[in-house]
Amino acid sequence: MRLTSLPSLLARRGRVVLALGGLALLSGCNFNFWRMDGHQSTMDVSGPVARSQLGVFYATCWVTFVIFVLVAGVLAYATLKFRARTEADEHAVPPEQGHGNPLIELSLIGASVLALVIIAVPTLKSIGYTYDVPAEEKANAYEVNAHGFQWWFKFEYLDPAAQIAGAGPLVTANELVIPAGRPIRINLRGMDVIHSFWVPKLAGKVDMIPNRGNFIWLKADAPGYFWGQCAEYCGDSHAVMRFRVIALAQDEFDKWRKDQLAPAREVAAARQPKAQFAAYRTDWKRNERGWSDQFELSPLDSWRTQQEPEPKHEDPALIDQGKHLFQEKTCITCHNVRGHSVDTMIGGKMQKVEFLGSPAYPNLTHVGGRTTIAAGVLENNAEQLARWISHPDQVKPGNKMYVSGYVANNIKLTPDDVTALVAYLRSLK
Amino acid sequence: MDDTVKSPFLGKEEHAPAQPSFVLWRPTAKTGLMSWLTTVDHKKIGFLYGAFALFFFLVGGFEALLIRLQLMVPNNTVLTAPQYNTMFTMHGTTMIFLAVMPLGAAFFNFIMPLQIGARDVAFPRLNAFSLWTFVSGAIILNIGWFLKDGPPDASWVGYAPLTSKLYNPSHATDFWVLGLQLLGVASIAAALNFIVTIINLRAPGMTMMRLPVFTWMTLITSFLIILSFPAITIALVEVMFDRQFGTNFFEVSNGGMPILWQHLFWVFGHPEVYILILPAMGIVSEILPTFSRKPLFGYPIVVFSGASIGFLGFTVWSHHMFTTGMGTVATSAFALATMTIAVPTGVKIFNWIGTLWGGHLKMRTPMMFALGFIWMFMIGGFSGVMHSAAPADAQQQDSYFVVAHFHYVLIGGSIFALLGGIHYWFPLMFGRRVSEFWGKLSFWVIFAGFNITFFPMHFLGLNGMPRRTFTYDGNMGWNTGNYIATIGALILGTGIAIYFAVVIYTYFKGAVAEHDTWDARTLEWSLPNPPPEYNFAVIPTVHARDAFWYEKHHRAEIEQEKAAHHQEDLAHGGIHMPFQSIYPLVASTGILIAAIGITAFDSNPVPGIHWKLGLALTGGLIMFIGVYLWALEGAEGYHIHPDEAGPDASAAPKH
User: How far is CA B231 from CA B237, B344, B410, in A?
Assistant: First the structure.
């Protein structure tokens, strides 16, 4: 079913059917794309806002489908019936030179207006419903801020229980965790250029515009893992500015929030460095997919697995080395790791340097617990982390870490540096 | 090869005007480069508009093929991200401003004066100025390909603040801003010219309600241009000031409002959509009656709905902004206004079908394109109605569904009609007729390729694929749709290649077309193929809506009338022709130089500022001199006597 004009198009144009069929044979494609059941499908929705919008879409589809069948039928009939069949026919006495029929015209205009009313009614109802959280659910609404940057999303939790003394609200990057079954009201703001917040399965998009207080509301019917993407062209890496929404049952959400409020996890430094250097793949191509099919078998479970620390696979010495590199390579200029610091010689004195970072860059306090890195583009595992910090420009052309970090400050990472940094970042659960 | 067809637009040497007594030089060349650079003949100018437009149509098409190749498979690396962003920016800008609009202008120039029985447009030199300013704009827009700054890459809508110096430091965006600004100057000058021509230069008896529909659509489109372009002119000036002189119209940190750009852009941008489609509707409204051999069904309603579309086109701009958080009232108002505009559009489709009904349909190539137009435009129109439902649009906006929609309207609509129009008027313009077989073959290849490319995009969009993305992952369910679309694009490209090969072949070696090739209904077909420089040896008197059809069926009456008019012309000393002029070209060149100078300016002073200032001032001076001499040389002309030029110049129908 779904897109209504397809059958009529196929019925109408045998040649198109033939061409499409021929292509299918050639390419061996399975024609399941018309089912539209992808991660960002607007036709297979998981929340009331997207459902309301889908309902309006179906209304427009059916109305236009009926009109199409009628008009196209008459057009096809007229074309076939009144076609000149022979050369002689073309030079026959011209047909009657009629100039029109006001009665037909007026009734067709009337019919068109009626058809539009059928579309207008659900449209107006849905405009009201999708605009803001319904009054009766306002009390239950959960509020967050979403800020768009080139090219990542920052989320702030306004919930009083998510405030951290001395550090402001709880902050995450590129993965918005929400309680399922509750209306979520998200304040949207573009921090540099215009971006757009779009999680197709939960709600249509609303733009994130600088100097403009936009908002969106959405609700996930049930716990789930949802794909989202920036939908307004925002510069070089617009295509790889993605994010995720993870909806959890209220109790699981509460536990997640409690864990997030804690400072970053510390791994006690081992006295005996047993540093062993993993060789990560280095031959990544530009734009290469950084995502495993394994992950998608059950994305929400993959997310849950990601939350758990893995002390067995950790090398405390390597992690400590990575922690120091995190300061030496100036990562701390931008990235916050709440609670972490290193002692280092500054001006001949040993000083404690906290990993404060800046609020305008992704907060890495619990980065190990996220399922994605580089704004939803790469899966968060050791291999992809190594790829990302080695060659960020190959994943995200024009990104600031590369342009105003690596290049501007002439930062070079050896394979050993990468291994240590990966170990450190992986430990930040 | 038949050599009885004269090179088009060739003048008569023996009637070359004497130099005016004035000291200013008036060029008189009728052939060669100078004749093209100094021409004021609406047919030559129309031809040049068409030639430039078709060239840029191929450039834009090539850009589109690169885009499709990049998206053929997931995670592809044919283009880098900046290259891809450049391609879609230039593809959109080129197709709209350098291909479809000037192709429309080519028909306005060539056909409209012939349809109303005029000998030229009202301001022939202004017409030349429009052409050369358009060429200047096209040069600036594309100049980045040859410079290290690169071509524009902020998308064809150029949303602030992405176009600001902070996020787009290279001069690429300056080229875009100044290029569009110049194209706006060209369009407004041309539109004023067409309006004055249609209002003032109609032949006797050609009342407004007898105007051919194509001329009506020219008039409405011209009004849309002069009313909508000022909005983008203002917006572009603001961006230019922000970038060149450090103002704060869109500078957020100083209180600028990026949303202002969107309102100004779409107040222009939506009427622009109708600027692209109304000429196409006009062409189809000419082709269908001719090949159905009966008048357009419901002429007054078609004209009135065209005017309604033009008027309503100014009330719906914010439907491009449903996702910008306008609030429920504005969203509802623009949704309803957008639905309203579907009514006059639908009425046109009903009337075209009514025209076919009961006719004798001659299935020639132009008719194929016109019918293809109705089918494809209908699909594009229906997906347009879907967008008018704002909640549904929240999902479709900036997805491939929108990409599918506007390509159905702009290719299936505008381009199909324009390609059909080229076939339709080719015999009149060049005296040769395109082969039916090759014409129809190109139509079917284009038709199939177009649908294979763009129909799957509806599914891609509903499946959540955003537009303007240089890559996508293989796990999103978008692989097959994109693969098919790319195959389709290659087929479409092949079809366009066949079309161009056929048209170019026909121009040189095609079958010679007989007079009134299609048994047509409007005045332009009363002229010889190709029409002489002065168009009408005798200005016709119009007695009915389909003026030429009436002439063909009332021959005796018309002959008498023409003889009388001829005597009047002789009493006035023959046919008055305007002198050629070089100054429109000089003025446009000055504007081009000044604009290049301005693009080089920077709000943060950099070395070389004097040189750039000098360039801008020099350009301004050249423009000033050009305009001054243009005014000084005067609108003088000369007289010719077609009778003495031989039988070839006689406007009497020859069958």
Answer: 10, 25, 22
Question: Vertex A288, ends A286 and A293: CA angle to 5°?
Answer: 170
Residues of A in contact with B460 (CB under 8 A): 33
Q: Which of residues A106, A131, A156 is at a domain's end?
A: A131
Which residues in chain A touch residue B349, judged by CB atoms under 8 angstroms apart? Answer: 71
The nearest alpha carbon in chain B to A296 belongs to B475
Task: Report if residue A281 sits inside a domain.
Answer: no
What is the model's pLDDT at position B1? 36
Q: What percent of chain B has pLDDT over 70?
A: 93
Q: Are residues A226 and A348 in the same domain?
A: no
Number of domains in chain A: 3
Do B297 and A204 count as a contact with CB atoms less than 8 A apart? no
pLDDT score, position B187: 96
Q: What is the pLDDT of residues B48-59, one digit of tens each?
A: 999 999 999 999
> Could you tell me which of B210, B197, B214, B190 has the C-alpha nearest to residue B424?
B214
DSSP A247-272: EE-HHHHHHHHHHHHSPPP--PPPSS
Same domain, residue pair A297 and A379: yes
Look at residues B550, B528, B525, B546 and name the one whose alpha carbon lies nearest to residue B537. B528
Residues in chain A, overall count = 429
Closest-CA distance, A385 to chain B, in angstroms, reads 18
- On whether both A297 and A423 belong to a single domain, the answer is yes
Euclidean distance between CA atoms B579 and B338, whole angstroms? 47
Cβ of residue B167 closer than 8 Å to a chain A Cβ: yes
Range of the domain at A213: 139-261
Is residue B483's pLDDT more than 50?
A: yes
Whether residue A199 is found in the same domain as residue A83: no
- pLDDT score of B467 more than 70: yes
Token pair 């077609």: residue: B642
> What pLDDT is stored for residue A55 in this prediction?
96
Show me where the domains of chain B are located. 1-46+96-209+514-655
Q: What is the mean pLDDT of residues B220-228?
A: 96
CA distances in angstroms from B364 to A84, A248, B8, listed in the order given: 10, 63, 24
Tally of residues, chain B: 655
At residue A104 the predicted structure's pLDDT band, cuts being 50, 70 and 90, is confident
Chain A contact present for B75, CB below 8 A: yes
**Separation CA A354–CA A357 (nearest Å):** 9
List the CATH number of the domain containing A316: 1.10.760
Strand partners, A146: A155, A188
Final residue in a domain of this structure, among A101, A131, A161: A131
CB contact under 8 A, B77 and A150: no
Calculate the CA dihedral of residues A35, A39, A44, A47 and round it to 10 degrees: 180
Which CATH number goes with the domain that contains A95? 1.10.287.90
Q: What is the DSSP letter of B410?
A: I
Examine residue A356 and state whether it is found in any structural domain, yes or no: yes
Can you give the pLDDT at residue B9?
Answer: 44
Task: Give A236-283 pLDDT, tens digit per residue.
Answer: 999 999 999 999 999 999 999 999 999 999 888 766 655 566 678 888
What phi and psi values does residue A244 have, to the nearest 5 degrees? -130, 150
- Give first-to-last CA distance, chain B, whole Å: 23
Q: B48 CB contacts (<8 Å, ≥6 apart)?
A: B36, B39, B131
Question: Taking every pair of C-alpha atoms in chain A, what is the biggest distance, in angstroms?
Answer: 106
For residues A184 and A220, what is the distance between their CA atoms, to the nearest angstrom?
9
pLDDT(A16) > 50? yes
Q: Are residues A351 and A302 both part of a single domain?
A: yes
Interchain proximity B360–A95, CB inside 8 Å: yes
| pLDDT for res B64 | 97
CATH number, domain at A201? 2.60.40.420
